[in-house]
Amino acid sequence: MPDTLPFEGLKIADFSWVGVGPITTKYLADHGATVVRVETTSPLDILRVAGPFKDSVPGPNRSQFFADYNTSKYGITLDLKNAAAVEVAHRLIAWADVLAESFTPGTVDSLGIGYETARAINPSIIMASTCLMGQTGPAASFAGFGFHAGSIAGYYEITGWPDLPPDGPWTAYTDTVSPRFLAAILMAALDHRRRTGEGQHIDAAQLEMSLHFLAPQLIDYNVSGRSITRNGNRSEFMAPHGAFPCQGEDQWCAVAVENDQQWAGLQRAMGEPDWAKDQRFAHVEGRLANQDEIESKLGEWTKSMPPKAVMEALHGQGVPAGIVQRSSDLQQDPQLAHRGFFRDLDHQEMGTVPYAGHQFRISGYDSAPRSAAPVLGQHNDEVLRDILEMTEEEITEAIIAGALGG
Asked: Annotated catalytic residue: which of 14, 55, 175, 203?
């Protein structure tokens, strides 16, 4: 472990909530930044009241959904409708290098912590504002969640089956991809400030960040005028390509045959059945034209074995395949265990629970969450006293004035 973490010394006032902002600041916090996550008790962050809950017991401090997005952070509560709380927020802005927020455009201005105010307090502040549609334009006021942005971007139209309505990606898709862009943008802004001393206001529209992952479809439409729509798990370029039922209840294995050599390998794995020797299937064009028949026959074979046996048989013949795993399966996955992906951290209320790590390794550096997520208001006293260096009298006055909420 190096003596200095990559973002050690970086100070972030995190006023964001739910997904994109917290995931972005978590990334920086896990790698050494000091992040103060600001919350309010009314309303609670939506993820605090969304499961899964520890031991299936609901509670604002028992959601691992929230906890996984907020590791390595300090947590305080501020009622920003209270003037005394705004004064504390201004102290945080003066202390911070980065100010993050993810509200509907105009909200932070009405709360007294908008960019012009922040810049007046701290001229070199880097402020990151992320919302669905961006800070300007006719759709700027559109509020919602990653499900909505994913739908507007076009993901729902292309996800699902052709004989069914749009199904959409499983999760709030833009919430999971946008933080990867925003974290990189913040690093670039920090480098710019290091070289020039200048801060800036980053307008990060989640719709626009997510559209990068539709680049092939957008280019295809611009070049050929062709609109892509739902096609299940099938590919335009390879067949068979999909998830096939296996032995057991709701057990599946994904299979992707990319070329004729892999098709030959699939035949060997299945024991060279007569149906697969049909010359119609010898080349990709024929397999693409006869996917219904191939999938039906292949599914009969996969149903005869557990998913792991199917995967291993195919791997043995050089055919890409993978078990369709549940979250409980992932915790038992030997590859993830070998990589040390899950980290057990001690949470103040939930106790020791596993947290997801990062999707990469750096030689000589253990990139992992450093501490469990805070319970609501866990670090109120520590932040006010040690980080903001408020006096006992100032802290007492802020509490009496209701700055920390009910």
From this structure: 175
